[in-house]
Design a protein that fits this description.
The chain has 142 residues and is α+β, with helices and mostly antiparallel strands. It contains three helices and six strands. Helix content is 31%, strand content 37%.
Length: 142
């Protein structure tokens, strides 16, 4: 896996993935930024959410669960002093589907957190990560 980051000006950067996708990152005005892009630490938190959601959806689909939506909310706290690493992260999954089994959702989240999600495992070295979920029924399967 490769990536490239190019400085634009001030505190603005463009990151480009090895697969050719780009994103603008910037800092707040009080740090010399222009507020034209996402903060780099926000990007890391979003990456964690996407990484674990990817796993959970795939595990549920492989288990033939009828999942129709997976939204992940993340709330992180950072250390007060440098380096300001994440110290506590709350991950809340909002699942929807047809007859989703509580045990299947719990198992998928646990497998992601403990085995498959590289981001979760990396962040777990500095942060306490808590997982919770809600399940909403879509109605009878067609």
């Amino acid at each position: 896996m490769k990536a490239r980051v190019q400085w634009l000006d001030g505190r603005a950067f463009v990151g480009e993935s090895g697969s050719g996708h780009a994103v603008v990152m910037d800092g707040p005005p009080e740090a010399g930024g222009r507020n034209i892009g996402i903060r780099p630490m926000e990007m890391l938190l979003i990456g964690l959410g996407a990484c674990t959601a990817f796993d959970v959806v795939m595990i549920l689909e492989k288990g033939r669960e009828k999942i129709t939506a997976c939204d992940v909310e993340l709330d992180a706290e950072r250390a007060d002093t440098e380096p300001k690493v994440f110290t506590h992260i709350r991950v809340v999954f909002h699942m929807r589907g047809y007859g989703l089994k509580e045990a299947a959702v719990e198992r998928a989240i646990k497998l992601s957190a403990e085995k498959y999600c590289s981001a979760s495992i990396m962040f777990g070295k500095t942060a306490k990560i808590e997982h919770s979920w809600t399940i909403a029924e879509e109605g009878p399967a067609a």
